[in-house]
Structure formats: C-alpha cells, structure tokens
Amino acid sequence: MDRIQAKLQQIWGYDELRSPQREIIECLLADRDALIVMPTGGGKSLCFQLPALLSDGITLVISPLVALMENQVQELTEKAVAVGLLHSEIPTAQRKQTLQSLSDRRLRLLYLSPETLLTPAVWSKLCDPELKIDRLILDEAHCLVHWGETFRPTYRRLGAIRATLLQHKPIDTKISIAAFTATADPLSQQTIKRVLQLDKPAEFILNPHRANLQLSIQQIWTPRGRKEQLTKFIDKYPRQSGLVYVRTRDTSEELAAWLSARGDKTAAYHAGLSPQSRRRIESEWLSGKLQYVVCTCAFGMGINKSAVRWIVHFQPPVLLAEYIQEIGRAGRDGKPSEALLLACESTGLLYPEDRQRNKFFTESIDRYYHLTTTLAKQLPVSGDVNEIERKFPQSSIALSLLHSVDALVWETPFNYRRIKSDKPPNWQSLKAQQQQLFSGVPNYIKYAGCRWEYLLTAFGCKPKSPGWRCGNCDRCRRQ
C-alpha cells in the first residue's frame, strides 16, 4: 500500500484513492482477472494505469475509440509516463518509433485498437518470448456485446489472445485480463466474461445513480420545435459548461453552425475531424473558450471536466448504454446538474429523422443475419480469418455472429473451427437480444415512473428499497 500511495502522489498528485479504486488496484496487482462496471467519472483509467507503473512488464490497453486512447495517452505523456499508442490513423514514422520502443522494453503501457493489435507487425512483437506482458485491459468492454456482434467483429476474437500469447512465453508466465466499462446489464456482464474467457474474475459492479443529476425528457413535434427547446434549455445556463449530443457527423456540423450564427461559443466534434482539430476543440472546451460542444458519441470518452452543468441529447441515442454514459459527463463535481433528452411524442420514433436512424440500425441486424446465414453455407470448416476474408468479403462479420451463437470457436485470434451440431444456430435468440438492446431507449422514454429507477433496474442495480424514487427527475417532480 505504501508503494501504491507513493506512486499515486508522485504521478497524479492525489493523496488518496476513491472506493473501490484501492480494491481494484490491489486485485490487478495480484494478477487476478476482473470485471469492473464503474460509472463515468469514477476513475476507471487510474485503476489500470497505476498498477501498470508498479509492475515489471507492459500493460496492453485495448480500446475501441481513437479519441479515448489519444486523450489518455496525451495525459500520461504529460506526466512523463512511458506510454505508446497504435491505431490505424497513426503516421508511419510514429508507428515505427512506437514499435521500436516496444521491442526495446521502454513502454509501461501500450494503447491499441483491437484491429491494430492483431496486425502482423504488432502481433509478432507481442509474441516475443522476452517481452513480459503483465495484463490485458479491455476498456469500454460493453462494445464487445453490441459492436462485437455487428460493427467490430474483431472483438469476438479477443478471448483467444491470452492463450495464444502464453504459447510463446516462458512456462510460468501469467497474463491477467481486466474488462472495464461504465455500462453493462447482467446479460452483458455474462457475455463479457464468457467471450473474454475470464478466469474466476473478481467483480466490481457499482451503482450508476447520481443524486445530483436531474433527468428529464421533453416531447417535441417539429424540427423547429426541437431547436427552440434546445436553445431555451441552453439559455438557462449562461456561461456554464455543457454538451449537446447528436447522432451523426452531418447533424453536428449543421447544428453547430446554426448555434454559432446566433452567437453561441460552440463547435462541432466528431470522429471525422483530424486529431489536431479534435485536440483543439477539447482544449477550448476544457478552458472555457467554448461553452459547449455539439458532438457525436466520439466526444467525452476519457476527457475529464468536473464542472459540466448540463447535457442535452438533441436526438435520442440508439442504445441505453450510450445514454447513461453520456449523461455521466455532467456533475462529476457533485454539484446539481441537468440532463435533457429531446424526443418526439411518447416513443421518440415518429419524428422522421429519428425513425430513419432507428430503422437503419434495426435493419442492419437483419442484413448481418442474412449475410451470415448465406456465407455459413460456403465458409470452410476451419481456416485463417485473413485468408477467408480475402476469398469471402465480409466473412469476418459472419464468423463473429457464428461465434455469438456457439457455432464456432477461435483456436487462436486468427484461426477458427466450426462446431458440428445436430441443432441449427439459435439466430432468433441472438436477434431478440439485439432487439432488446435497441428497445431500451424507446421504453425509457415511454416509462411512466422514476427515470433513475428505470435505469438502475435496466442495468441490474436494485433500487435502495421497494418503491424507491429519486425525487429529482421530471417524473418524480411531476408526481
């Protein structure tokens, strides 16, 4: 504990840890697997960064979002921590320098996207018997449940990483795995543990409720009405920091331009901007030069600002997990804050743009299932995923979905084997799970009771007592 306290003070300047940061850090230093579900702003990154600096080898941090990785790496670099970053947007010269630092054993943490982790240049260096890997950290692990079965098929291969790496290491080597997320319901927790093959993991499941965060939903009927409600809400908080969340890059650009024209200090932020532009906007928002940012879900991951007084969802998010993460950006300092969601009528689906976006995501499920059932008849019984992808485009998605229904196993992160069974794959069960994820936000909008009570129940956290109400959301205040 003295070592932990000394390093905490030396690098971060903190005198003490929050609960249960200390317990999580001790767990990781004991080389145990772990599943950590901790609300946004709870200090998740410190829980794996500090153990990395107290360990002999390197900690690999696998993250889905470039913005999240870049922010954490920038912060650690400013603290003189030996940290590296690899993803598809990294310039060639910087990539070579990072790989050389990895070979020279000069890194304590290495942040990677899952796809970059499995490229030949990176994987060959990680398999070096002399390179000591202490642990694998999967940040934003909830992405495995949704994206891993649709948009990010590489996530389904991560469970084979540890066993494959250990084949190249000394016989007594131990590599632990810790999965971190701010949002995971009980079913998602089970999926994360199963796919990552966690070994008797310690579990730290924290309640996401914040008594200082007031939740409300405002019904709107027209595009004009949506903008009017937005500006009315923003004007309640002159010179106070906030965020406006939208779904698409185009909407962020159009809305930011419209709000800037009325004199607001704001800017559009999305993953399509250059890293330099993203860093500039983040810096201007953190310093107060920008009152708020009109952003997609790419903003806020790993960006620390405690005095955020308000959040607006200009459009309903696709997933309830996105919503609870994004409202969690407000009120980290414990002071009263407000989160408003703008939705048309009771279901939030009749507004043409909302309906079109939801239709796209729900129909994408059907497209992926159709693709998978078609390719399943053509794919070999076993093979190398890269070779199969060249022969059968989009086969990586099909393999991901086949893995989701236990129709294949990943023997390594690169090689699969189909499983023979008398029963056909249970596609309907998997489809029902995905549809349940998509129904979370419409059901939340329609729910007649306490907003926080619905969210806590949805994420497997029992309210404090039967009939408990937060007393602070728009439903409770109305009652």
Tell me the distance between the termini: 49 Å
Mean pLDDT: 88
| Number of distinct beta strands | 16
- What shape does the CA trace take? globular
Instruction: List unreliable stretches of 5+ residues.
Output: none
- Can you give the helix content as a percent range? 40-55%
Structural class: alpha/beta
Largest sheet features: 7 strands, parallel
Oligomeric state, counting identical vs distinct chains = single chain
Computed over alpha carbons, the radius of gyration is 23 Å
**Which range does the strand content fall in?**
15-25%
Per DSSP, the total helix count is: 20
Adjacency order of strands in the biggest sheet: 3-4-2-5-6-1-7
Can you offer a commentary on this structure?
This protein is an alpha/beta fold and 479 residues long. Helices cover 43% and strands 15% of the residues. The protein has 20 helices and 16 strands. It has helices at 2-12, 21-29, 44-53, 66-78, 92-103, 114-117, 120-126, 143-146, 161-166, 186-195, 223-234, 249-261, 275-287, 320-327, 352-376, 385-391, 395-404, 427-446, 451-458, 474-478, and strands spanning 34-37, 58-62, 83-86, 109-112, 133-138, 176-181, 202-205, 213-220, 242-245, 268-269, 292-295, 310-313, 337-344, 382-384, 408-410, 415-418. A seven-stranded parallel sheet has the order 3-4-2-5-6-1-7, sandwiched between helices. A six-stranded parallel sheet has the order 8-13-12-9-11-10, with helices on both faces. It has a three-stranded antiparallel sheet with strand order 14-16-15. The model has no long low-confidence stretch (mean pLDDT 88).
